[in-house]
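Thread: Modeling a multi-component assembly for a lab meeting

Hi all, long-time lurker, first post. My supervisor asked me to bring a structural picture of a complex we are working on to next week's group meeting, and I have zero experience with this. I have the sequence lines for every component (614 residues in total). Could someone generate the structure of the whole assembly? Inputs are pasted exactly as I received them:
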Amino acid sequence: MTLTTADRKYTMFSPVLTVLRDVLARPSGAIGLTLVTAHLVLALISPLIVPYDFKATNSSMMLTGPDMAHWLGTDHMGRDVFTRVLLGGREALLVTGIATPIAVTWGGFMGIFFGLAGGRIDEVMMRIVDAFLSLPWILKMLVLIVTFGTGVEVLIPTLAFFYGIPVIRIARAATHDVIARDFVSAARARGHGRMTIIWRELLPNVLDTLMVEGAMRWSWMLLAFSSLSFLGFGVSPPTPDWGLMIADARGFMSFAPWGVLGPVVALSSLIIGINLTADALAKALGIDRAQKAPV
Amino acid sequence: MLRMLLRRMALGAITVAIVSIIIFSGVELLPGDACTAFLEREAKGKLLENCREAQGLNRGPFERYFDWAASAIRGDFGVSANGQKSIAELVGNRLKNSLLLASSSLALGVPLAILLGVITGLWRDRPIDLTLSTIAIFAMTIPEFVSATVLILLFSVWLGWLPGIVLTPAHAPAVEFFPEIILPVIVLTMVMTAHILRMVRSSVIEVMAGDYVQMATLKGVPYWRIVFRHALPNALLPAINVVALTVAWLLGGVVVIEVVFNYPGLGRMIIDSISDRDLPVVQAIALIVATVYVGVNLSADLLTMFANPRLRTLYMRQK
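Re: Modeling a multi-component assembly
Sure thing. I ran the full set together rather than chain by chain. Output:
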């Protein structure tokens, strides 16, 4: 039997470092974390290192194949594909990087609160959560986006709101697991208030679950964001974005496949990296995530 | 037993009712109404008046909600915002096509996923498990439009084996969608199989480590007899619920797939009506999809309960 981090959390090492070490010790964690880190670093420094201007069109260089000057060729407007692939994840990482913590925080607090409160209010709340979950994500988001516009200032709250709702359920279930334990009864017997119990007793114990949940939400948000871009409801041109680039280049796929392959590899490697990391993190913390379905 | 059944069905009905309130008030809360949204800049004077008349927007919100909900129960969703066609008629063909796509993928994906899930679970951490599990992670995490694009590039552009785009009109009979439907079905099956496979795998591993399997082994029951008689019936039970959750994913995932392959189903209609700002159609589709989702989950819950003697008696005792 292998020891999980949960079993040896309170050693002399700081818990964060222990978890990190455990994640890195697994092949999936090492590969995943490397991919994610590389993407984050590239997103930060790419404006400094790109060889061309991402919106510089060149009508004499349309859809030329890869060569020494343009490593990944050019697109239908003569723009350098390599430049646009390097820059194409910035918007996605910015939006999902802000929306994910917001979603996990508000969903987590609501879930813990209703899990602790129980009774009528919990029952009613869960019906509402179920109702929201029964609508396909794309429908919910598109209605808001079409009404309020497709800017970053609309996408972040929309993603944060809808992706926080499933977190309520997860946090509530995790709270139910913890709440029956003795230390919660002890805190109650000591006369602590509800907020103190949430903050001091419940939150530290559901934090593991929320962390894994956050990693998964991040990857699903990226999936949603790039799908929206692909459908033409995400970032607006000429901003380089992988989803949008794939949509644009699809029409020329038969004779200029490089326009599709660059963003495909970039987007896939980021999402796979996040998922591998989430997988290793879940195993390191001793949480089974196989039974979760995409929402 | 009957009481439990009725209780679950009532809960499902309540969920659908809440969904209808969310859909209705969601559209109410948005700036403007169905007519101003659809007519956009021409929303003034006679045109706006006529549209509001046709949509019955001159009444109070409560009256309109109950009218809308009552007709929806009878299968009447009113007319689309351009005032021409009955929504029920518009949606009918599209729904049929989407169901064709979804059910073909389920028919292909569920048995495949269970088979592969059992194989990976039994041969845990062996090369076959590592290979299949890695492929599964790729299949389930890469966005559908990306895998669809790659498959089109591979099978339709480079190899020329399969058509990469659907040209059959929406009202054509189901057989005419062959062979255009093959690639979309493959993409949907891939993602779905990956999800169910992972769940079945972990379930098989858990059951095979159980006390009764160890007991049977110690008694000298042959390995394959243990697998088929003791382990699998217990391991596959939770699969029912995962399949139901996958259907929920299918309802959303199908939207992107239908756009990629130009497939004339409900998903593409969602995108079209949202782009046209045809809110009555959006409302109708949302309600239909949510009802299907709740219905599928309810059936899965009940099926699990009937199939599992332990749960059955548990619920009977609770009443």
